[in-house]
C-alpha cells in the first residue's frame, strides 16, 4: 500500500525506518496504527485505502466518546488531531507536501465530552482525502525539512551605487543563489553540485532566506536532479543571463515547494539584457561562473559533496547488453531490469511489472533512467542470453526457469502484502 501511495521509494523507505524504530519500543504499534486507519476508513475507504478528513474527525470523536482508544492508541491523539487540523487549514497535500504541525496541545481524556473533543476540530474540513501514507507520516512524526535560499552578491556590495550608472536604477545585489536543504547546498555552475552548506566558492552568503518546508528527502532531490535536470543544466548551455544558477534554484524550489523564487531574483536578467555592460561581460561571466568542474564539488573541493557529470559517462559505459540495471519505470520508483539492446543515448529493457504480474519490454529508455548494478555484468551470471554464449535452446530454457522462479517469488510477496493490507 505504501508503494502505491508514497510519492517515491525514498519516502516509503523513510516511513519504514521510522516504523522499525517505533516497533522496537512498542511491538504492537503497527497493529494499532492499521486498526486505527481501517476503523477511520470504514466501508467508504475499503476500495482505495483513503479517508476524508470529515470521516476521520467523526470516527476519532466516536472512539473518544465510546472509550474505543486503548492506552497505546491514546498516545496518538495529538498526531491524529494534527493530521485532521492540517487538512482543515489546507496546509496538507497528498504525497510530498504533507505538513506536520507542532504544539497541538495536550491529549484530551479518553472519554472527553462531544463538545470538548470537537472544540479543536470544529472548523469546516476540506475534502482532500487522507491516504495511508499521509496517516503514517504524521503518526510516526515524519517532520518537514526547512528549505533556504542562500544569496551571494557577486558585486560585493557595489551594485547599489554602480547600477544607477550602468542600467539606470539601483538594485540591491547581483545575485548568485543556491538552495539549502538537509544541510546541503545545491547550486549550478556548469555542473550541478551538492555541497556542504557554506563551502561553495562564493564564500559567505550575503542573505539567507527561508522559503518554506518540504517532505521531499535528500535522495528524492538528487534522484530528480540525476533523471530530469542533468542534461538541462550543463556547461554547454550555461548562460549568465538566460540559463544560470538562479534558473536552477527556481527549478529546485518548484520541485521541493511548488513555488518560484522572488521576482527580484528571477527578473534580474531582464534589467541587464539590453545593456552594453552585459554584452561586453557576458562571455567572460559565462567562463567564470559556468565552468566549475565536477572535481570542484567533490570531497576535496567544497567540503565533501557530489556533482553531476563526474560519473554519468562512466555509468552509461558500464551498461551492457544482457546486464542487470536499476530502471526508473515511474518517477521515484526503480526496479531491476535486464538490458536487451543499447544504441546511442537510449536502451531497451525488460522488467517485471508487479501490478500486472508479467514481464514487460520498454524500448528507447533514456540513459538517465537506468543505473548499472555493481553485480550486473553478464559474466557474473550463469544464465546467459542466446547472444551471449551457451546455445540458444539452453539459454531459452534457463531464461524461462528464471522467469518462473522470479514470478513465483514475487507472487508470494504479493500474497503477503495482500494479507497485510487487509489487516
Key traits:
six-stranded antiparallel β-sheet, five-stranded antiparallel β-sheet, alpha+beta, 13 strands, 40% helix, 423 residues, disordered C terminus
From the N-terminal CA to the C-terminal CA, the straight-line distance is 12 Å
Question: Uncertain segments of ≥5 residues (pLDDT<50)?
Answer: 90-126, 376-400, 416-423
Based on CA atoms alone, the radius of gyration comes out at 26 Å
Report the structural category: alpha+beta
How many separate helices?
Answer: 16
Tell me the overall shape.
flat
Total number of beta strands: 13
Proportion in helices: 40-55%
How big a fraction of the residues is strand?
Answer: 15-25%
Largest sheet: number of strands, sense, barrel closure? 6 strands, antiparallel
Q: What is the H/E string?
A: HHHEHHHHEHEHEEEEHHHHHEHEEEEEH
- Calculate the mean pLDDT score and round it: 74
The strands making up the biggest β-sheet line up spatially as 7-3-4-5-6-8
Structure description:
It is built from 16 helices and 13 strands. The chain has helices spanning 2-5, 9-25, 29-41, 53-66, 71-74, 77-89, 114-118, 132-139, 159-166, 218-229, 245-257, 263-266, 268-272, 276-289, 312-318, 392-421; strands at residues 50-51, 130-131, 145-153, 175-181, 184-188, 192-196, 207-214, 306-307, 324-330, 333-343, 346-353, 358-366, 370-372. A six-stranded antiparallel sheet has the order 7-3-4-5-6-8, with helices on one face. The N and C termini lie close together (12 Å). The model is unreliable at 90-126, 376-400 and 416-423 (pLDDT under 50).
Amino acid at each position: 500500500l505504501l508503494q502505491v501511495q508514497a510519492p517515491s521509494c525514498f519516502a516509503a523507505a523513510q516511513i519504514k525506518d521510522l516504523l522499525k524504530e517505533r516497533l522496537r519500543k512498542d511491538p504492537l504499534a503497527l497493529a494499532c496504527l492499521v486498526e486505527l486507519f481501517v476503523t477511520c476508513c470504514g466501508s467508504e475507504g475499503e476500495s482505495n485505502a483513503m479517508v476524508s478528513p470529515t470521516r476521520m474527525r467523526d470516527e476519532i470523536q466516536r472512539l473518544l466518546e465510546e472509550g474505543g482508544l486503548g492506552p497505546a492508541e491514546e498516545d496518538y491523539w495529538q498526531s491524529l488531531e494534527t493530521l485532521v487540523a492540517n487538512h482543515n487549514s489546507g496546509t496538507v497535500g497528498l504525497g510530498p507536501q504533507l505538513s506536520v504541525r507542532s504544539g497541538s496541545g495536550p491529549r484530551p481524556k479518553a472519554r472527553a465530552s462531544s463538545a470538548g473533543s470537537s472544540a479543536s476540530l470544529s472548523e469546516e474540513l476540506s475534502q482532500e482525502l487522507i491516504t495511508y501514507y499521509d496517516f503514517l507520516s504524521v503518526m510516526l512524526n515524519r517532520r518537514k525539512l526547512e528549505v533556504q535560499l542562500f544569496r551571494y552578491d557577486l558585486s560585493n556590495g557595489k551594485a547599489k551605487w554602480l547600477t544607477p550608472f550602468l542600467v539606470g536604477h539601483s538594485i540591491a545585489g547581483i545575485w548568485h543563489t543556491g538552495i539549502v536543504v538537509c544541510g546541503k547546498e545545491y547550486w549550478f555552475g556548469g555542473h550541478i553540485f551538492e555541497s556542504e552548506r557554506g563551502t561553495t566558492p562564493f564564500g559567505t552568503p550575503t542573505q539567507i532566506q527561508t522559503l518554506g518546508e518540504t517532505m521531499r528527502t535528500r535522495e528524492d532531490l538528487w534522484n530528480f536532479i540525476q533523471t530530469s535536470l542533468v542534461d538541462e543544466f550543463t556547461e554547454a548551455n550555461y548562460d549568465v543571463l538566460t540559463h544560470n544558477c538562479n534558473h536552477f534554484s527556481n527549478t529546485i524550489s518548484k520541485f521541493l515547494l511548488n513555488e518560484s523564487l522572488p521576482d527580484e531574483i528571477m527578473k534580474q536578467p531582464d534589467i541587464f539584457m539590453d545593456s552594453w555592460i552585459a554584452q561586453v561581460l557576458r562571455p567572460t561571466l559565462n567562463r567564470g561562473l559556468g565552468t566549475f568542474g565536477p572535481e570542484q564539488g567533490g570531497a576535496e573541493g567544497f567540503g565533501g559533496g557530489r556533482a553531476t557529470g563526474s560519473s554519468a559517462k562512466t555509468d552509461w559505459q558500464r551498461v551492457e547488453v544482457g546486464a542487470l540495471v536499476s530502471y526508473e519505470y515511474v518517477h521515484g520508483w526503480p526496479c531491476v531490469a535486464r538490458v536487451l539492446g543499447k544504441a546511442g543515448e537510449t536502451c531497451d529493457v525488460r522488467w517485471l511489472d508487479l501490478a500486472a504480474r508479467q514481464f514487460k519490454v520498454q524500448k528507447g529508455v533514456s540513459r538517465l533512467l537506468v543505473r548499472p548494478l555493481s553485480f550486473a555484468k553478464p559474466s557474473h551470471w550463469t544464465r546467459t542470453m542466446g547472444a551471449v554464449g551457451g546455445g540458444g535452446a539452453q539459454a531459452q530454457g534457463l531464461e524461462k526457469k528464471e522467469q518462473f522462479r522470479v514470478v513465483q517469488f514475487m507472487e508470494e510477496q504479493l500474497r503477503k502484502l495482500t494479507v497485510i493490507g487487509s489487516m
